[in-house]
Design goal:
about 260 residues; alpha/beta; Aminopeptidase; binds zinc ion; metal ion binding; hydrolase activity, acting on ester bonds; Succinylglutamate desuccinylase/aspartoacylase family protein
Length: about 260
């Protein structure tokens, strides 16, 4: 209840908390409220409602801190049918709204609202996590935005289905060209129950994956995967994703104090 009051306050006085919502990818707009499972699991706050309104116009980007300062980015929903990370990102946004932060943080809870609304994995017949290197795709526009706004580190959060790849709670990274990608993933592995999956060179296995394209652009990036079949929310999967996000924030010393248990 107290949190809600603080969030209300954040919305009333965004300048005090320096919370802003921008929109990118107008062509990827969607109505998240039509996704029944996501609606069942997210906190119903006025801030969440603001996210839905923004998603109806495109990819919502929530910035905590000074917009013109370098910062870090947390991304979810590159695959619209992977729910745990998207739900975790909404929870994270509601939490960060009442925290004091040391670092500017940008959170994208729904990379492609159009796909989230319809529980789609692909975008125009292509995997959005294989086309971040192609001009004009939703994920390439997120890269371009990140360069423009001096994003320094990216955490991209997904969920993997049992029996798929990687098929387990894990964190993916590479060592070349950004060793920090490996270092961030190594930290997340130690802070959570995630398995570390490290590749030597970014882009060698999955060209066009967001994590790789960021690393190749000199923005150290990791991919977090929690486990849940596509289009579902497996028990524990949202918290697992949220823990990965918090570990990413902890690596960058974002929070002034440790978060309370969720
Ligand atoms: Zn995915």
């Amino acid at each position: 209840m107290q949190n809600k009051t603080k969030i209300e306050k954040a919305l009333l006085a965004p300048s005090a908390y320096k919370l802003q919502i921008e929109v990118l990818n107008k062509f990827a707009a969607g109505d998240i409220t039509k996704n029944r499972l996501i609606m069942q699991h997210i906190p119903k706050t006025s801030l969440t409602t603001q996210l839905f309104l923004a998603a109806k116009k495109g990819t919502p980007i929530v910035t905590f801190g000074r917009k013109n300062k370098p910062g870090i980015m947390i991304l979810a929903g590159v695959h619209g049918n992977e729910y745990p990370a998207q739900i975790a990102a909404v929870k994270l946004i509601n939490r960060l709204a009442v925290e004091e932060l040391n670092v500017t943080v940008r959170v994208i809870p729904f990379a492609i609202p159009f796909s989230t609304e319809r529980s789609l994995r692909s975008w125009k017949g292509q995997d959005p996590n294989r086309t971040a290197n192609l001009y004009g795709t939703p994920t390439n526009n997120i890269l371009a935005y990140s360069k423009r706004n001096r994003v320094k580190y990216l955490g991209d959060f997904h969920s993997t289905r049992p029996g798929g790849y990687p098929g387990k709670l894990s964190v993916l990274c590479s060592e070349i060209p950004c060793l920090l990608s490996f270092q961030m993933a190594d930290f997340i592995e130690k802070e959570t129950k995630s398995t570390l999956l490290s590749f030597t060179k970014a882009g060698s296995i999955y060209p066009g994956a967001l994590e790789d394209v960021f690393n190749l652009a000199g923005i150290p990036a990791v991919t977090g995967e929690s486990m849940s079949p596509h289009g579902t929310v497996m028990p524990g999967s949202v918290n697992a994703s949220l823990e990965q996000m918090y570990a990413f924030l902890k690596f960058h010393k974002v929070l002034k104090k440790a978060p309370e248990a969720t």
